[in-house]
Design goal:
Length: 770
């Protein structure tokens, strides 16, 4: 190819590079984000990126021989006549460099006959490569010093280098292990640190896709897709935090949750078979003085698993019952699965059928597969009318007193084999197929549910979803699905939640204690400790496994469990502040250490410690039988929460961790809001707030609003600037933006004394109390 047929056009931040009969479009979204697009004639609707994110940006395009360069203040993107793309940061460090060599397929020397033999014993063997017409791949050089993060809640370790992953939402009942390539969620965001320089690649394509991050070869990594347009965003920035913030800028942040959503929640498949069982659970929480915000109702509350029904043989008057619990401070979160029972006497099925709202076979008949209700139809959630219909029906649950909705089985799970790729679905206003819509099925169900709750209540909706795609964080919290009561699942929960956090899902959790298999007293105890700052804080278990409520293992476990629930409540105002910060800076609440300390090589694959915001470090025990552990403390001075002992960082210490201890370290010179040990989080404004000083001097900005509705978006919130100087002088400044629930009393706990301020109505300020 000659350079004559290689040129570009440039208009309105869109640079079209044409080479022969091929072209590629580069859209400058902002200095740190450039979108790369090659049209393969597929849908251009994005489920992840809503609205136009383009900001007026200075950039330059030039052609020098065989290279066209697009340069912003943060990125330099170079394109050659083969339309290969190389990316450098503002200081010319390579971030993404196309790999020109051949692939070195691991399987290339194994012929089909041998694969058959290996398979006959039940071993998994990679499919014999039969690339389809629509298949494409992107190959980039892999540096010896290159690490990978993100990809949502994949199994395995924090650093994804050396592994391969698929993006295909899948319900996987077998114990999740590190070699699994895919689970319930597909979040195709890859963060890399190449020779210390961060970048991100977000492949916004809902079709089945694949990452090989150095498994096949240590020379390159691969993104490939079965279908769809080539459509990805290059994300740059000075730090890994900046790159993560670019990603949430594109796909959205987690909206502020209601305050109670950060409290403790209890669940078990089977509770809602029987009203008296639910009552017994709530009674026990009261009796044992254990905080409790919500009980989750699994599929049993429905009539024969029919969605939007309530079995009145089990609950004579659901509304009255839920109200009675609400009066005791406990909310109910019922589950909804997508499968609508095929039953001619069932109004939801009839309505969906009449309106053509279910996914169809190629011949136009309704597609049926089996899930909990038996034979079921699947709402076509990619159709906006179907989402509205579903959302409206959510009102039935809310009118009965539900405080949120748990959406499950929305990969979608199907018991009689996988849903075929050619099942007909809708992509907004266009006909489509499951091949494209499968990975956004759960996303659209969660979005429909979110909007249904918002319309019906005006409150910040609480939705939990199992399946998700990039951007689902705007509508729902997630949990990591059916884990098991296994130590290695407790271990895996930390990298899973940290990678989910980097992938936009700041609000996430695991089933505490483990879902399947039988937990043990020690495992349950260590799990509630390790999950202490897990944003979604829910104990959930399966139908037939050993009970795992806090009291079932006797007094010692109960006392420790209670102690940690109380400690969680101390941190709720801090967690709420972290969520508020996240809405502003797009950074997760629960964090891998590498996010806060990207230059520290020790933390690049740190799987058993995490941070909460910038200043709290947690090092739980995740090994059976262990009562001491090495704790790595990064740069800076650290104060152990329980002993007050100070440590100098960039060192590993040995912590004694008997069963009732959780090592928590606070960065020296930090002020933290210190909540109250309540049994239920109130929707009423707190009258008092306490701040605790760790170290000698610090400043802190605390956020407050009503914790329930959207009035904060109209300015109804307050900010408090709290400071302590080295001489111990404290100040509390109220920045009243319009929320009238300001604290009457603010206390600051110094090392040697408690300073109390009272709100003075006349001056609208805090003054020292006598
Ligand atoms: C799925 C969910 C699990 C739930 C069960 C029954 O396995 O992941 O949380 O308890 O279905 O509804």
């Amino acid at each position: 190819m000659t350079t004559d047929s290689f040129d570009f056009t440039d208009s309105n931040q869109q640079v079209q590079v044409v080479s022969g009969n091929k072209s590629m479009t580069f859209s400058v979204i902002k200095p740190e984000i450039v979108q790369v697009f090659q049209d393969y004639g597929k849908s251009t609707h994005s489920y992840a990126v809503e609205g136009d994110k383009t900001i007026d940006t200075k950039y330059a395009v030039s052609k020098d021989g065989d290279v066209i360069t697009i340069k912003t203040d943060a990125l330099m993107v170079k394109v050659d006549p083969q339309l290969h793309v190389d990316v450098y940061d503002a200081d010319n460090h390579p971030l993404v460099v196309h790999y020109n060599g051949q692939r070195e397929s691991i399987n290339q020397n194994i012929d089909a006959a041998h694969k058959k033999i290996v398979r006959s014993e039940g071993h998994e063997v990679a499919a014999i490569d039969e690339a389809s017409d629509t298949y494409y791949e992107v190959l980039n050089q892999l540096d010896d010093d290159e690490q990978f993060y993100g990809l949502g809640g994949k199994t395995g370790f924090l650093n994804k280098r050396g592994y391969e992953y698929d993006n295909w939402n899948t319900d996987e009942p077998r114990p999740h292990i590190e070699s699994f390539t895919h689970l319930y969620k597909s979040i195709p965001i890859l963060f890399g640190i190449k020779q210390g320089h961060p970048y991100g690649l977000f492949f916004d394509n809902t079709y089945r896709s694949h990452f090989d991050l150095g498994k096949e070869s240590s020379k390159y990594y691969v993104y490939s897709a079965d279908d769809g347009n080539l459509n990805y965003y290059i994300l740059g920035g000075a730090t890994l935090k900046d790159v993560v913030a670019d990603y949430t800028y594109l796909t959205g942040v987690v909206p502020l949750p209601q305050r109670w959503m950060l409290g403790y929640q209890q669940s078990r498949w089977g509770y809602s078979m029987d009203q008296s069982r639910v009552e017994e659970i709530v009674d026990k929480f009261e009796q044992y003085h254990l905080p409790l915000e919500a009980v989750h109702f699994d599929i049993d509350y429905m009539k024969g698993y029919r969605v939007f029904t309530w079995d009145t043989d089990k609950f004579a008057d659901p509304k009255a019952f839920l109200m009675s619990l609400r009066k005791r401070g406990v909310r109910v979160i019922p589950i909804l699965d997508p499968g609508v029972k095929q039953d001619d006497d069932y109004d939801i099925y009839q309505e969906g059928l009449k309106k053509g709202y279910f996914a169809k076979n190629k011949d136009g008949s309704v597609y049926i597969n089996r899930v909990w209700p038996g034979k079921s139809a699947f709402p076509d959630f990619g159709n906006p009318d179907v989402r509205k219909w579903w959302g409206k029906h959510c009102k039935f649950l809310l009118d009965n007193g539900a405080a949120g909705i748990w959406t499950d089985m929305n990969e979608p799970a199907t018991f009689d084999g996988d849903m075929p790729d050619d099942v007909v679905m809708t992509d907004e206003d266009q006909p489509s197929t499951a091949k494209m819509m499968h990975n956004v099925y759960g996303h659209n169900m969660a979005k429909a549910t979110y909007n249904g709750i918002k319309d019906a209540t005006g409150k910040r909706p609480y939705v939990i979803t199992r399946a998700a795609y990039a951007g689902t964080q705007k509508y729902s919290t997630v949990w990591t699905g059916d884990n098991q009561s296994l130590w290695h699942h407790l271990q895996m929960s930390i990298p899973q939640l940290c990678n989910l956090g980097m992938s936009g899902f700041s609000y996430a959790g695991t089933d505490i204690g483990g879902f399947s298999a039988d937990t043990t007293p020690e495992l349950l105890t260590r799990w509630v400790e390790a999950a202490l700052f897990s944003p979604l804080f829910r104990n959930h278990s399966a139908l037939q496994v050993r009970n795992q409520e806090p009291w079932v293992f006797g007094k010692q476990v109960l006392d420790i469990y209670r102690k940690f629930l109380h400690l969680r409540y101390r941190f709720i105002p801090y967690l709420y502040d972290c969520f508020h910060n996240e809405t502003q800076d797009g950074l997760p609440v629960m964090r891998a250490l590498v996010l806060n300390y990207p230059d520290d090589k020790t933390v690049r694959n740190m799987n058993d410690e995490y941070m909460v915001g910038d200043n709290v470090l947690v090092a739980p025990i995740v090994q059976q039988g262990q009562t001491a552990r090495a704790v790595y403390l990064p740069k800076g001075q650290w104060i152990a929460l329980d002993t007050g002992v100070e440590y100098t960082g960039e060192t590993t210490i040995l912590a004694n961790v008997p069963i009732d201890k959780l090592p928590i370290f606070i960065k020296k010179n930090t002020l933290l809001p210190w909540g109250q040990e309540v049994e239920h989080i109130s929707d009423q404004p707190d009258k008092t707030m306490t701040f605790r000083l760790f170290g000698d001097a610090a400043t802190y900005t605390h956020y407050q609003d009503d914790g329930v509705d959207f009035n904060y978006q109209n300015g109804e919130y307050n900010e408090y600037a709290v400071s302590v100087d080295a001489a111990g002088n404290c100040q509390v400044k109220l920045n009243h933006h319009g929320y009238d629930g300001q604290y009457q009393t603010v206390k600051v706990q110094l090392n040697d004394r408690l300073v109390t301020f009272k709100y003075d109505d006349q001056s609208a300020a805090y003054v020292l109390a006598d």
